[in-house]
Design brief:
Elements: E1 4-7, H1 13-24, E2 28-33, H2 36-49, E3 54-58, H3 64-71, E4 83-86, H4 102-130, E5 133-138, H5 151-171, E6 176-183, H6 190-194, H7 199-204, H8 214-225, E7 235-238, E8 243-245, E9 248-249
Length: about 250
């Protein structure tokens, strides 16, 4: 029987690439997200390119009851989740703390922290019972160092970093692995979401250098989950070659 991975936020970006990478490497996958039409395209891509079985679950990770209801659909073979990839997350807005939009703050906190906790609470009891499993939390360089106008996004990703460390301590007695993968500047939907659909502004983020791509992070996840049983990758920070710190990026002049 193939191992099973569940990936949150799998409709695009890191989540989509990770779901495809795992499916190509002998995993059956559960893909989750808010946009059913996007999940359908991911499911079609997986079925056309691999032999993997796929289950799509459409729900909002911020809704505790919706998360619980969706996880209740993990019956039969889908109950035995081997890998949980906590990928769903976002940045909303970019402003100084005294000028911030409270709705943006709540969206980030509800998605990046509470959503991660909601699904982790549903999946980990099965891992504990089986004394087997691996949790991958997708963090960010923003969870390692603060930057101007990052404030609440920084705080949410620092929380992910802290939760990863705490999960590792809480779950080590049960043989469960926990890994943090922290990307630097990555060209996904991240900036488009942060700037609320402003494509021109989003494009400027990546001008003059080669950023990370979704597949780079998917390969890191695959590396972590494919280590032998005695090896746990605790913490990965992955940066583009041109980026040394959050705000230290070497850009070619045009």
């Amino acid at each position: 029987m193939r191992p099973i991975a569940i990936i949150t936020g799998a409709s695009a970006g890191f989540g989509r690439a990770t779901a495809i990478a795992l499916a190509r490497n002998n995993y059956d996958v559960v893909i989750t997200g808010r946009r059913s039409e996007k999940l359908e395209t991911v499911e079609e891509a997986i079925r056309s390119k691999t032999d993997a079985d796929v289950l799509s679950l459409t729900f909002d990770i911020r809704d505790k009851e919706a998360v619980k209801e969706a996880c209740g659909k993990l019956t039969g073979k889908w109950e035995a989740i081997d890998v949980l990839v906590n990928n769903a997350g976002l940045a909303a807005g970019l402003s100084l703390i005294h000028e911030g939009d409270v709705d943006d703050w709540e969206q980030m906190i509800d998605t990046n922290i509470k959503g991660l906790l909601y699904i982790t609470r549903q999946i980990t009891p099965g891992m504990v019972k089986r004394e087997k499993g691996h949790i991958i939390n997708i963090g960010s360089i923003a969870g390692k160092e603060a930057y101007e106008m990052g404030n609440v996004y920084n705080a949410s990703k620092f929380a992910v970093d802290g939760l990863t460390q705490a999960m590792r301590i809480d779950l080590v007695d049960y043989g469960i692995k926990v890994t943090a993968v922290n990307p630097g500047a990555s060209e996904t939907e991240f900036s488009l979401v942060r700037f609320k659909g402003d494509q021109e502004q989003a494009d400027k983020v990546y001008e003059g250098f080669t950023p990370l791509y979704a597949e780079d992070i998917a390969e890191a996840v695959l590396f972590a989950v494919s280590r032998p049983p005695h090896v746990n990758i605790d913490d990965l920070v992955i940066m583009p070659t041109s980026q040394a710190r959050s705000r230290k990026i070497i850009r070619k002049k045009t």
